[in-house]
Known about the structure:
This protein is an alpha+beta fold. The chain has five helices and 14 strands.
Amino acid sequence: xxxxxxxxxxxxxxxxxxxxxxxxxxxxxxxxxxxxxxxxxxxxxxxxxxxxxxxxxxxxxxxxxxxxxxxxxxxxxxxxxxxxxxxxxxxxxxxxxxxxxxxxxxxxxxxxxxxxxxxxxxxxxxxxxxxxxxxxxxxxxxxxxxxxxxxxxxxxxxxxxxxxxxxxxxxxxxxxxxxxxxxxxxxxxxxxxxxxxxxxxxxxxxxxxxxxxxxxxxxxxxxxxx
Length: 226
Ligand SMILES: CC(C)(COP(=O)(O)OP(=O)(O)OC[C@H]1O[C@@H](n2cnc3c(N)ncnc32)[C@H](O)[C@@H]1OP(=O)(O)O)[C@@H](O)C(=O)NCCC(=O)NCCS
């Protein structure tokens, strides 16, 4: 994959001592505040590929994290310093993580109103494959909702291409939990709960239905030949 940029940066793994610089950068990216929590820094250091872009003066000017999920790479947490945006750094970061990962399938999710993020995915030849919705609310496990609403185990619903668990989109074939439902609703045992059919007002959830509180996310996929 060719990497084009109008600024020279180098890449390296993020280290524990980069915490302050990374968190300063992420504070300037409110687009990530829906899911980024300080505990994620430690998790991203332990798991997956946590990569920084450093300019010629040694300043950390960009970061990205990639998780190796079941047969694909999941990109998240990409951010570039506001004073140096639109110079090709995010494209370089994403290209670097993708090409060094060895994975043939790469996926990422972008908020529907985040134009730079969507345009970045499209500029890297990602194709949209799904649309999901997030709504905040009471944070409870599927089991508690099932008890409150008297849901029982049901068959897997038809026509559901994928779901979100732990803030990563997954194709439905990878789901190993139960589907819990009634006549109008089917939920999945994910974190937060994913509503596969219908909707569940008042609970923190991802789902397939656009509700009044919806934050829409477009899921993108890139398939490479290695
Ligand atoms: C999204 C983000 C990482 C892009 O970083 P960047 O270094 O400015 O992006 P690049 O310069 O590499 O842009 C690559 C391509 O993305 C698209 N793009 C990036 N920013 C854009 C913008 N503001 N408007 C339209 N298209 C944009 C363009 O196609 C661009 O190519 P071009 O400049 O040759 O036209 C940056 O805007 C950012 O940090 N945003 C806040 C955090 C965030 O939203 N992260 C994404 C969460 S999924």
